[in-house]
Design brief:
Distance between the termini: 26 Å
Strand order of the largest sheet: 1-3-2
CATH superfamily: Winged helix-like DNA-binding domain superfamily/Winged helix DNA-binding domain
Strand content: 5-15%
């Protein structure tokens, strides 16, 4: 089977998408490291900011291919370093809830400031409309890829 013109366009998008992903990861590293966190720790801790969550739910929300076991290791490290704590889960005896401590909340607040400065600088280089259109297009491409693979939608994704 030969590739269609649209298939060629998707293929041409892959390398720039990987490059953008790498740039986002590098930016997350640059923002998180001065506070002593890794990007993964930032993601896991940030997922619990609004409400304490069990590790499995954090893994679902964070997505990005992090397995529950990986999130468990990150959560254990956050607890050991005092950025998070485990709370009893009234819905499940063994699946404790992860919640940020005061130290963790303060650290996330500092990261928020750095992330806002980065986002404002990047956002100044393109228009808000372009960013909104890009987000919508990325969401549609992700949904189309999942459909082509027969995979279920991830939390936060919107079907087209």
């Amino acid at each position: 089977m030969s590739r269609s013109h649209a298939g060629d366009a998707v293929t041409d998008l892959v390398l720039p998408a990987f490059e953008l992903n790498g740039e986002f990861l590098a930016a997350a590293e640059a923002i998180a490291r001065p506070a002593g966190l890794s990007p993964a720790q930032w993601q896991v801790l940030g997922a619990t900011l609004d409400e304490p969550l069990p590790v499995a739910e954090i893994a679902r929300r964070v997505g990005l291919g992090l397995a529950r076991q990986s999130v468990q290791r990150v959560a254990d490290d956050l607890v050991a370093r005092g950025w998070a704590e485990y709370l009893p889960n009234p819905m499940h005896k063994r699946a404790k809830l992860v919640s940020p401590t005061l130290l963790g909340r303060g650290t996330l607040g500092r990261l928020r400031e750095a992330q806002h400065a980065w986002a404002n600088a990047v956002g100044a280089a393109v228009t808000e409309r372009e960013l909104t259109e890009a987000r919508e297009l990325i969401t549609r491409i992700s949904a189309a890829s999942r459909a082509a693979r027969g995979a279920a939608a991830t939390p936060g994704s919107q079907p087209s």
